[in-house]
Amino acid sequence: QDFIAKSRIETEQARLLTLMAAWKMDTYGKKEARREISMIKVVAANVVMDVLDRATQGHGSLGMSDDTPLAGMWRFSRMLKVADGPDEVHKMV
């Protein structure tokens, strides 16, 4: 139950940060929202990885097999984490 609660809390935090970045873009333009956009790129990717890690842990060895979509989701999410630049680049903004 702790895994589910942590995952829900982190997902909601990322969602709210995304909404704040979108509001700032709509209100002031994307240049003014640059900091929030960089933050969400770091936060969302990390939240996805953490949630998938907990889901995999909860499923035991089945979570690492191709019998569930978790392993494929993890691989895809890990690829996306570096596709737009590593976290270190986004933290420099």
TrEMBL record:
Claim: Oxidoreductase is one of the keywords in the record: yes
Keyword Transit peptide appears in the UniProt entry: no
Residues covered by the Acyl-CoA dehydrogenase/oxidase C-terminal domain: 4-92
InterPro entries membership: Acyl-CoA_dehydrogenase (IPR050741), AcylCo_DH-like_C (IPR036250), AcylCo_DH/oxidase_C (IPR009075)
A cellular component annotation (GO) from this entry: cytoplasm
Gene Ontology biological process terms in this record: fatty acid beta-oxidation using acyl-CoA dehydrogenase
Entry keyword set: Flavoprotein, Oxidoreductase
Protein name per its UniProtKB record: Acyl-CoA dehydrogenase family protein
